Amino acid sequence: MPRIIPSSSSLPKTFPVPGYRHFLTPLRKLIFDYDAESPSQHGVRAFIRKPLMNLARANPDVEILVRRLKRGKAAVVRGHYVNGRDKVICVNRLEMDEVSNKVNILLNSSGAKVKHLKNSTLEAAPASESARGIWSALHAQQKDGSGYRI
């Protein structure tokens, strides 16, 4: 009796799905606005010369745009996100490594609106239990004639 050897085509195969195992940042577009002649923007110009190329190679899913401004305008970095929001950070009078830190803030941000928790109030839903739990007379210890102890 001949022996049946399974062919390689009958074994299950897995195929990589495009985009699977690839994290896409929520940042879609990064725009550098700067003045080429202003002495206060030397950090931005130094960042655009060298580290910006490495940043573009490391993040191929982010579109990077460099625009020259009119004289007297402050240098800014704008980040446009997938959710339609944008964040603008002024990088005027910053050194090259400080500009790099600001760009990393935009790259690592989700683009969601910042929610301040300092003055927010917590509202309890109707019929929800209190923070201390549910109280009942059955759970409390009773003293002789003095009522329930809470």
Automatic annotation (TrEMBL):
**GO cellular component: a single term:** mitochondrial large ribosomal subunit
Q: Which GO terms describe its molecular function?
A: structural constituent of ribosome
Its annotated compartments are: Mitochondrion
Entry keyword annotation includes Glycosyltransferase: no
**Domain of life the protein comes from:** Eukaryota
The chain positions of domain Ribosomal protein/NADH dehydrogenase read: 36-110
Q: What keyword terms does UniProt attach to this protein?
A: Mitochondrion, Ribonucleoprotein, Ribosomal protein
Q: Give a GO biological-process term.
A: mitochondrial translation
Q: What is its main location?
A: mitochondrion
Q: Which residues form the signal peptide?
A: none
Q: Sorted alphabetically, which PANTHER family does this protein's record hold?
A: 39S RIBOSOMAL PROTEIN L43, LARGE RIBOSOMAL SUBUNIT PROTEIN ML43
Q: What family does the database annotate? A: Belongs to the mitochondrion-specific ribosomal protein mL43 family.
Q: What name goes with this protein?
A: Large ribosomal subunit protein mL43
Look up and give the organism this protein is from.
Answer: Kwoniella shandongensis
Lineage of this protein's species? Eukaryota, Fungi, Dikarya, Basidiomycota, Agaricomycotina
